[in-house]
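Q: Can someone sanity-check these two? First one:
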Amino acid sequence: MLLSVALDDYPNTIPLKRGQIQQPSDLKFTFSDIRPANRFFKLMVREQRFDVSEMAIATYVQAKSYGKPLVLLPITVMGRFQHGTILCRSSNPVTPERLAGKRVGVRSYSQTTAMWVRGILQNDYGVDPKRVQWITLEDAHVAEYHDPPEVERASNNKNLLAMLRDGDIDAAIYGAELPGDATLIPVVPQPAAAAQRWYEHHNTVPINHMLVVTEKLATSAPEAIREIYRLFVASKRAAGIPKPGDIDLLPCGFHACRPALEMVIGYALQQSLIERKIASEDLFDDTSRTLEG
């Protein structure tokens, strides 16, 4: 079986992509060269372009709420703590307590990093997201979704960094493209320490990207789904992740991923990313829900 796969390069995926993980003779992957990852999410949601794809979890939860024929596998491909991803100018500092009425830029309102940041700000700092003016550059990957009223599309061709430097916005949320600019500072003070306290309080990690497959593949080849899971877990282990004593930001297995997924669903509902609550079990099918360890 030859499967098309859309997957970015991370330490935990490179062993698999480089052929360092032994694959069964009847299962082969062809990897898409589309980069970065957010460029193929839309293709997977709207066209099911690939058999297997990395996908931002907020995008998947939205896709599931609109009945897209996709199935989640309990494999975290990318995860990170989010407290340091919202930045402001050091010359005009903003704290969580001062965000009401401010203009905050983000690539897309439905971006997973933004969902986590808004959820953290609302539930841990008391910030009402509806009192913030969100400035976006792109639509959601899910075509049927429309941004809420407090979201405004940027009227110029500037990127987030230029908008922030020029004072068009007061703060910005960044994903993988977090800028190394000495004139910018985190909105959340001491973000690493704040993230550690958040982890100790919630006992979970902020999952960003997981793995999805088409419903067609999941239904027709459940043994292939189990093998895909095994290969990705083996690739993570081959990369030596997590290192001894480190927090595992890449949980695998239904029960390991479930606490974060429950938070994602709750945050998505709070922020009008979805219209109704979805049970975490319903993000999976009968095969993927059984994958553990």
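And here is the second, same format, sequence then tokens:
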Amino acid sequence: MTPATLKILRDEHGALSAVLRSMSMLVADARRRNATPDFHALRAMLFYVDEFPEKLHHTKESSLLFPLLRQRTQEAAPVLDKLDRDHAQGEHAIRELEHLLIGWEMLGEPRRTAFEQALERYVNFYLSHMRVEETEILPLAERALTEDDWRTLDAAFSQHRDALTGREPDAAFRGLFRTIVNTTPAPIGLA
């Protein structure tokens, strides 16, 4: 039987990928139309990335999953080191994106290109990051971790309340998820 943690991680990777791609689509569509994007939707998606993947998902990977893997095998130590560095840089990267978006929104067109370029770098970076986790780390975890390890991880990761993965969000976040779903294009939104 597949541990719950693996499904949760894959679902969360899917949600983050969808949000990242949706941000790119909104920005690209605005560029094609020679218009400004829906800044409210972009702010909501950036806030989501900061609150869920950055603060919750990545933190538990680096504080729980990766240390357990290091205890069981040295096979992926350099890869885990790089992924931990990626996680450590994530907060700075999301703050930069938020700042660049506010700059574009407040100061207009001269700030557009800087945001677009930073968003493209961020999206490419995190899609690559998740691909490494999916193709190298999660298969290694399936082989190397014990049943007790999985029980520990399942208890921690099953507490996640990310509505974009089909879970019921905490009441405080319902409005955020409603905004994202109602203002962004598929695959995560209805717009």
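A (reply): Looked at the second one. The chain has one domain: 4-183. The chain is about 75% helix and 0% strand.
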